[in-house]
Specification:
It is found in: Cytoplasm. It is an enzyme of class 4 (lyase). Its EC number is 4.98.1.1. It comes from Chryseobacterium rhizosphaerae. This is Ferrochelatase. It is a single chain. By secondary structure, the chain is of the alpha/beta class. It has twelve helices and eight strands. It has a domain of about 150 residues: 3-Layer(aba) Sandwich (Rossmann fold), CATH 3.40.50.1400. The strands form two sheets. The chain has a four-stranded parallel β-sheet with strand order 2-1-3-4, sandwiched between helices. The protein has a four-stranded parallel β-sheet with strand order 6-5-7-8, sandwiched between helices. Helix 1 crosses helix 2 and helix 9 packs parallel to helix 11.
Length: about 350
């Protein structure tokens, strides 16, 4: 009889804050054609010829500001999630990272060595994007075919529009939201605009009003729509008026056109509009990491205060909150049960 297991996948992290370790991590990450989608030669010239000459040292300093005694926050939190989930479910649970270790291959191998032949693989990204969900699935399938052809994998699909997730997110925000806030900013990780069009096999996306329609063929793969939809669902549950809510996109890289509005520009301009007491949440992430702990809660705070803001409240990711663990359990068990139907 087939044995089942669960593999939780997150982005990944350098082994340490040493410049060489950060450089190795960034090389693997940025050379992924799903992240920087140029032809290989141009990607190599950009990443290895330009970015890796200066960015590793700067990123290493940034990582030092968030690194814990246990290591990378992202890895530490993902392992905490694994341990809590393991107590709620009766199949083995492992973790893997898209970049660096423990890798997806390591995670699959750890399960296979326990006799597992059917794996529920859970990319821990609420919204679908070429540079997150898509690259995880393609990498996992490549590894499965080459190294573990006897293993079957079911994937947990993006869950941005699932009530159990948005209920969980809304309650987490509600508990941490200041009573006297002027606005709540939803800051999502940004992607180049061309990624949106590339993932749209229906060719119906116009990067305009289609994101706000109730239905559109492109929605299943449109990251921008899914971010706006996540926000709408959460603010309805929080019973917030739309005039107190802002959506923006962070972490852009290079000179290409990324989806707008940009978070850094937003933080620098909203104090002039009377928004002095700001709360901010980052729902593209389920685990706090460099992009939330340093880019938003440190750099973002500085930008906002220097621009005339007075109070800045960063609302942490779901991390290992018990209600979030329960969401993971339910989503994983749905896919575990699907094996019986195949």
């Amino acid at each position: 009889m087939a044995k089942k297991g669960i593999l939780l996948i997150n982005l990944g992290s350098p082994r340490s804050t040493a410049v060489e370790d950060v450089k190795e991590y960034l090389d693997e990450f940025l050379m992924d054609e799903k992240v920087i989608d140029y032809r290989w030669i141009f990607r190599a010239l950009l990443v290895q010829g330009i970015i890796l000459k200066t960015r590793p040292a700067k990123s290493a300093e940034a990582y030092k500001t968030v690194w814990t005694d246990e290591g990378s926050p992202l890895i530490v939190i993902t392992e905490k999630i694994r341990k809590k989930l393991q107590k709620r479910i009766d199949v083995p649970v492992e973790i893997g990272m898209r970049y660096a270790e423990p890798s997806i291959e390591t995670g699959i191998r750890n399960l296979v060595e326990k006799g597992i032949t059917e794996i529920v693989l859970f990319p821990l990204y609420p919204q679908y994007a070429m540079s997150t969900t898509e690259t995880v699935i393609e990498k996992a399938e490549e590894i499965r075919k080459k190294k573990f052809p006897g293993v079957r994998i079911n994937y947990v699909q993006p869950f941005y529009n699932r009530d159990l997730y948005t209920d969980c997110l809304a309650e987490s925000i509600r508990e941490k939201l200041p009573e006297d806030f002027d606005a709540l900013l939803f800051s999502y990780h940004g992607v180049p605009e061309r990624h949106i069009y590339k993932t749209d096999s229906t060719k119906t996306c116009n990067m305009n009003d289609c994101c706000y329609k109730d239905t559109n063929p492109s929605h299943s793969f449109c990251y921008r729509h899914q971010c706006f939809n996540t926000t709408d669902r959460v603010i309805r549950k929080l019973e917030l008026s739309k005039d107190k809510v802002i959506v923006s996109f962070q972490s852009r890289l290079g000179k290409d056109k990324w989806i707008e509005p940009y978070t850094d520009h937003t933080l620098e301009t909203i104090p002039q509009k009377g928004i002095k007491n700001l709360a901010i949440v980052c729902p593209a992430f389920v685990s706090d990491c460099l992009e939330t702990l340093e880019e938003i809660s440190v750099e973002g705070k500085e930008q906002f205060l220097e621009a005339g803001g007075e109070k800045f409240t960063y609302i942490p990711c779901l991390n290992d909150e018990d209600r979030w663990i329960e969401v993971i359990r339910v989503l994983c068990e749905e896919q575990l049960n699907q094996f019986y139907l195949i």
